[in-house]
Structure of FAD-binding domain-containing protein:
Amino acid sequence: MAVQKVLIVGAGIGGLGAATALAQRGVDVDIVEVKPDSHVLGVGINQPGNSLRALDTLGLLEECVSTGFSFAGNDYLDWNDNEIVSVDSGLGDERVPANTAITRPALHGILKSAAERAGASIRYATTVADLVDDGDGVDATFNDGSTTRYDLVVAFDGVKSPTRSLVFGPEVQAEFAGFGVWRLQLDRPAELRRAQVFQGISAKAGLIPLSEEHMYMFLVVPEPGNPHHDPADFGDLLKTRLEGFGGIMGQIRDAIDGPEGIVYSPLIELVLPRPWHKGRVIVLGDAAHTMAPHLTQGAGMALEDGIVLADEVLTDRPIEEALTAVSAQRYDRVKLVFDISHAILEAEMQVTAETLPYAVAGMRAELPGQTAFFESKLNAPFRTPQLRTPQPTIGN
Ligand SMILES: Cc1cc2nc3c(=O)[nH]c(=O)nc-3n(C[C@H](O)[C@H](O)[C@H](O)COP(=O)(O)OP(=O)(O)OC[C@H]3O[C@@H](n4cnc5c(N)ncnc54)[C@H](O)[C@@H]3O)c2cc1C
């Protein structure tokens, strides 16, 4: 096997998934993570059917489904809780749910345990200081001064990816989209068993069930100039941005009495041109493609990347050919998700008081068909059938 020892930079969702996929197939995997420990910030994360299929490939479907909350589709309403349209998801199948939302710490814990069970090692508070690729291997020097040689280096180091800058130059950066997302975990009302999405004026909010006890709310709004918000002000800022919402989102706004638990994320976007590798270093996950979270596909795209990588590099052929095949196989799928997510973001943020009735009519007429279209693409297999390696036997 040409690829026997791999370094993964970043122990996030994509890095841990790729480490599991490679280590389950017998590869010696080291992961380095710049954070001091495995603590993850954030509220919930939805895993649609295609992402759950990727987790299934890693042997983790049952654990994710039993830990999270599965739901069948989205109910769209206006910002006064008037129903617009309900859309059942066509993702998944009799075995895989359409959607399973889960807390970020729980998903992280499941992936970390899987990577370690499969034999991958994780070093925290560690990063790459330098990479020297001589064609036959890569010498990685770490921040503690040590150097180790690898057959392949895989960067899953997130949207600001220092490895991407090292390999493709510092000018390749994700761009602020002009909008931000506010999120908060809350108690779930018993009747909330599907995602609810509330269209307002230049604002979209939503509720996602997370467990029998909890849900999370999100709010997407313009954030002109990409401001830095002081976390101490998060409560007041979120309340202000929820002005105008009636119904349940209005009740949630009125109950906010401080910044505790509120997470703010500016929306940034990038699709790296192909190929996503140079020599023996490849950039994947958010480091290669960061998209608006409107289809809740970011983690799924990162997990799929890691599995396709394992499929491709463990075939018997030159590394250049295998790595070229990775981004060739991934690019169109990722770009479709990126483009649709961006189009939804722009359309919903352009809704004014005058255009709200037309937007509502358009959503009612268009959303079922649009959803069926992109879900048919996402339900298509993400792996080249002849390269699929057998279901993992190690670490389940
Ligand atoms: C508001 C919002 C909501 C979202 N909701 C969803 C959703 O519902 N469903 C979904 O699927 N996706 C969602 N996403 C997207 C999803 O979170 C990401 O796509 C996913 O986390 C990408 O995984 P990754 O491993 O590529 O990057 P990350 O998860 O960001 O992991 C990168 C890791 O690399 C580490 N790192 C960074 N630099 C270095 C370095 N120099 N050395 C070592 N380590 C380093 C970081 O500390 C981090 O641990 C959302 C995103 C946002 C912003």
User: Anything to note?
Assistant: The pocket of flavin-adenine dinucleotide is lined by residues 9-15, 32-35, 45-46, 51, 127, 156-158, 162, 181, 265, 285-287, 293, 296-300, 302 (CB under 6 Å). The chain has a mean pLDDT of 95. The longest helix spans residues 319-349. Residues 5-69+101-174+268-347 form a domain with the FAD/NAD(P)-binding domain fold (CATH 3.50.50.60).
